[in-house]
């Protein structure tokens, strides 16, 4: 049997891979195993197809070279700094995310965005279903599948016990609002308010702050209203949000107001660190960075060394955990200043690129990608690990829309 013909007939079919991209957000709900399988299938078909059609020019583009440099640094960093097999495996497997971004960019660019609109349409419908599910769970105590969160003030929705629906919401909210603007223009502000309130009700403070910040920036580009009107609208949203917090169950007020107030109302660093688990993780990450300035301790190795006493000098305190729960501290502690500047420089490059594309072509999709990356790198606000499958997949899906002209 001709192997080339076999692949052509069995797997290389545009509609098949588009369906995989359709359901990638759903796979994120099911779990890392399923989402990684879907990602693998997408990139496997993509690689086969670009080599078959000889569309490999992007391999020599500046962006792809940047990805390869970062990839090689991660591998060398993990090999020479740690004997942790998970660290090396994570580093080697990292390449799938940039390739996924190029794959999405490739299929979204086919025939004047023929599939891009269908993908965004399906993702918008899915986002609305998730929104309904979140509101349903908030109202009755369990979601449409019958799952109930055991954490007061946190909504589980379709993510189940993982309690990470806020990360999904942050990752797709700008794309959903953009779809509403382009297809349901009269209801754009309705969806903005609906999605913001829904994000608030999820109960994940960090992701809500990122959603609010991202949406607020997007509003400034939304239409040609006066700056005063835009600022007034955002100020009104803030007041509305605070009123909502006062009206909903008390544990929301505790999460969004009391816990934050009690943490910052401390007289010294030790008390401040002990008062908040995230600040404790940050402190330990800083201690690790101070002792491993140039190259860090290796990707995904924070969990193995953060419990060490030398990184926890405060008496009766241990900031050890799986990761620092903040992007900058994660990169500094695990990759050192070298990897930090390399990755942060890449992210800033793409932010500038997306904004430049927007002002040149009024391309809102590029703008959304830039805003998402910008809000991802906001300092101090807690975040998931940049190198986990769930967080990374969402991040590189968004970055994909900045690569459409490069493939």
Key features of this structure:
407 residues; 71% helix; globular
Describe the structure.
By secondary structure, the chain is mainly alpha-helical. Helices cover 71% and strands 0% of the residues. It is globular and about 60 Å long.
- Following the backbone from N to C, one meets helices and strands in this order, namely HHHHHHHHHHHHHHHHHHH
User: Low-confidence parts lasting 5 or more residues at pLDDT below 50?
Assistant: none
Beta-strand content? under 5%
The beta-strand count equals 0
Helix content: over 70%
Q: What is the rounded distance between the termini?
A: 32 Å
Number of helices: 19
The major beta sheet can be summarized as:
none
Radius of gyration: 22 Å
Structural class: mainly alpha
Give average pLDDT, whole number: 88
| Principal-axis shape | globular
Q: In a nutshell, what does this entry contain?
A:
With 407 residues, the protein is an all-alpha fold.
Itemize the secondary structure elements and their pairings.
Blueprint: H1 3-10, H2 14-22, H3 24-30, H4 32-52, H5 62-81, H6 85-93, H7 96-109, H8 114-140, H9 165-183, H10 188-202, H11 205-222, H12 227-247, H13 250-264, H14 269-275, H15 277-291, H16 302-305, H17 327-361, H18 364-376, H19 389-400
Helix pairs in contact: 3-4, 4-7, 5-6, 5-17, 7-19, 8-9, 8-10, 9-10, 9-11, 9-18, 9-19, 10-11, 11-18, 14-15, 15-17, 17-18, 18-19
């Amino acid at each position: 049997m001709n192997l080339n013909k076999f692949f052509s007939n069995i797997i290389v079919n545009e509609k098949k891979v588009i369906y995989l991209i359709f359901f990638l957000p759903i796979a994120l709900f099911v779990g890392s195993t399923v989402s990684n399988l879907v990602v693998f299938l997408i990139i496997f078909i993509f690689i086969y197809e670009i080599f078959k059609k000889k569309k490999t020019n992007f391999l020599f583009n500046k962006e792809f070279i940047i990805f390869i440099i970062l990839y090689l640094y991660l591998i060398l960093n993990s090999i020479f700094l740690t004997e942790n097999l998970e660290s090396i495996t994570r580093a080697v497997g990292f390449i799938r995310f940039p390739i996924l971004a190029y794959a999405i960019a490739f299929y979204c660019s086919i025939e004047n965005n023929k599939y891009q609109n269908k993908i965004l349409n399906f993702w918008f419908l899915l986002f609305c279903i998730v929104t309904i599910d979140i509101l349903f769970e908030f109202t009755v105590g369990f979601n449409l599948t019958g799952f109930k969160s055991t954490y007061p003030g946190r909504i589980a929705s379709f993510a189940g016990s993982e309690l990470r629906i806020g990360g999904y919401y942050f990752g797709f909210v700008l794309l959903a609002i953009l779809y509403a603007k382009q297809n349901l223009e009269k209801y754009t502000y309705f969806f903005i308010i609906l999605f913001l309130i829904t994000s608030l009700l999820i109960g994940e403070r960090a992701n809500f702050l990122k959603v609010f910040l991202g949406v607020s920036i997007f509003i400034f580009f939304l239409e040609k209203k006066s700056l005063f009107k835009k600022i007034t609208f955002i100020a009104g949203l803030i007041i509305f949000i605070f009123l909502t917090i006062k009206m909903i169950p008390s544990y929301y007020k505790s999460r969004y107001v009391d816990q934050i107030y009690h943490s910052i109302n401390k007289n010294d660093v030790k008390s401040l660190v002990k008062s908040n688990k995230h600040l404790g993780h940050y402190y330990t990450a800083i201690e690790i960075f101070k002792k491993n300035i140039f190259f860090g301790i290796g990707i995904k190795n924070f969990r193995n060394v953060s419990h060490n006493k030398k990184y926890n000098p405060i008496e009766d305190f241990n900031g050890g955990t799986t990761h620092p729960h903040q992007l900058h501290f994660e990169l500094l502690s695990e990759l050192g200043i070298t990897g930090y500047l390399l990755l942060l420089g890449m992210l800033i490059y793409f932010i500038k690129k997306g904004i430049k594309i927007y002002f040149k072509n009024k391309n809102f999709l590029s703008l959304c990608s830039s805003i998402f990356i910008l809000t991802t790198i906001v300092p101090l606000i807690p975040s998931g690990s940049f190198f986990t499958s769930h967080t990374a997949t969402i991040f590189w899906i968004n970055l994909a829309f900045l690569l459409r002209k490069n493939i």
